Amino acid sequence: MGYTLVYTQVLEFVPYLIKGAWISLQIAILAFFWGMFFGLILATIRTFGSKLSNNLVICYVTFFTNTPQLVQIYFLFFALPEFGILLSPYIAVLLGMTLNAAAYLCEIQRAGFLSIRQNELDAAKTLNFTLLQQVKYVILPHIMKVLFPPLSNHYIIMTLGTSMAAIFGVEELTGRAFNINSETFRSVEIFSITALIYIVITFIATFLLAIIGRYFFKAKIRIIQ
Amino acid sequence: MERLIEEIPNFFTIWNVIFLAKAMGVTFLLTAIGCIVGFSVGGLLAIFRKTKTIFLLPLRIFIVFYTEIFRRIPFLVSLLLFFYVFQIIKISDDLFLIATITVCVIATAYIGEIIRSGIESINQTQWDAAAAMNFTYYQTLKEIIFPQAWKVILPPAFGFFIMFIKDTALASQIGVMELTFAAKVLNNKGFSPLLSFGTILILYFILSFPLDRFGKYMEKKLASNRN
Amino acid sequence: MPQIEIKSANAFYDKLHVLKNIELSVDKGEIVSLIGPSGSGKSSLLKMLVGLLIPKSGDVYLNKTLINYNNQSDLRAIREQIAIVFQQYNLFQNMNVLKNVSIAPTKIQKRNPKEVNEQALFLLEKVGLKDKLKSYPDELSGGQQQRVAIARALCLNPEILLLDEITSALDPELVKEVLDSIRLLAAEGMTMLIVSHEMSFVREVSSRVVFMDEGSIIEVNNPKNIFESPKEKRTLDFVGKILKDK
Fold this sequence. Notes:
Strand order of the largest sheet of chain C: 6-7-8-3-9-10
Oligomer: heterotrimer
Radius of gyration of chain A: 21 Å
Number of strands of chain C: 10
Strand content of chain C: 25-35%
Order of helices and strands of chain C: EEEHEEHEHHHEHEHEEHH
Distance between the termini of chain C: 37 Å
Largest sheet of chain A: none
Largest interface: A-B, 39 and 44 residues
């Protein structure tokens, strides 16, 4: 084996990588929240909209959940210029992730809507809750509790998904790993450290989400085991 | 727009169509092999993870680390890591092999977790009854737990399979000739990116959508059987 | 010679001290009932006897042999002699009634399948479930499931039978049919430890009654004394309350 692992050469780049991790988180959070917003609109249309708009949303969701996010971004980045729409790599990635997230989060939120059982609404009505009170005291807490685990899970998936931004030159965590790699060629060391950083940030995220879930929404998620 | 329509016959030549079909085959093969290995080895990991003897403790610790690690690294980073490790240890430079091994390792971690979840969903009372009648751990799993757990395991496992088809798109980054790579090749050859990437999107859809529908149908059937 | 002897046994569920210095001996053919409030350790005592709860200290003897709870073959040995019927029946959901009863004798005790099958049929007929052989647990009522569980335990040919609140999860109408099956067994001389809230039944079949509270054995005596003239105040309170509720 004519290669020895030399981590010391690469350690100086760790702060640079960690700054990249912040950018990854930025992208994930932005895409997640915009995806939630649009997903909510889509879920509302699906639950309450006309047959036509319902079917349109179904087409949208079906398309985006049955094709890879990477190729969706490739399309936005390379094919849109044909129509005169030029997107920067960062925007293309963000847009792609948002559109993708909107489809998945639409389905998750729709499941939340559907999970409200008629009995709960009836019980609230018999207690003379106004519509607003029903929403505030019965519907919202229940939905939050039901939605929190799958939403958290999808957020983690999206955080890991930001790594494909590197393919388009965005300087988030993986992208910076690429940069360092082309400078030092210490590939295994660099990518193993990058992997480690991803593990750490997902652990932190899962941990924080578990705490938020337990205290604010009484929803339980596992960390390990 | 007219340019696009002109390009279509040039795009859909026999050679290209065969090329795309092969790429689709590679995508499917990667996914299928990954999931078959993932199910088998993942199943073993799930079984050994729940043993109690002290002798298997190192194995249990390894399994926990393995599962947690490979589920928290992006697919792309795992692929690159394995790619470069293979370069060092010089076993092979067959890109498909490297991608397949990576895919198997990742799928094992995820499916192993799904199987473990399924096993744990079976009530402790079943284990107690079995233990009280002197069933060994493995006998309990074989005769009692797995026959009940598979219904809980199958829907998410199938869901993973469908998701995995899309994840294999990242294998394009280490040069494996699957669908996404094929799109890049065609794009680089000068075909319109709209046509190249658009067609690939449709091809992924053709792979994924029927399986997705089947998965939903299967889930409905299992749920109604339970009632 | 006592068949079961427990000396100063202590057991914990995590940090909870569920069995405190238990002293008990049971002779062959005896029917000992355990009564007491919820959480008093009655089920835990049964679970310990069948090896599902490991005592932290103390000794348990089966036919004068000390049981080493850390030894797998010792645990297997007690289960070859003691069978338990759980409060929640714990039937195997993926098997029909006949298979539930016959699987352990066939696969674990490695007996002749034909012989096991015959015995299973006999037992199921005895508990009145002859026409439910191919049914699955979720197709049966609580009482029927409990009777399957009894047949299943008996098919193991145990020396000692443990019954853990087997009527508690049943509708009142179904309780009688289960108790009838137990009366049959009692008449046949099986050693039994019964945890039950059915005081009249306990009084009828038991040779001795053990009152437990908060993990300890408070009083042991024959049924007449326990119900009519208990020595301990706690026993009196409990018995008084239970009989009043009836």
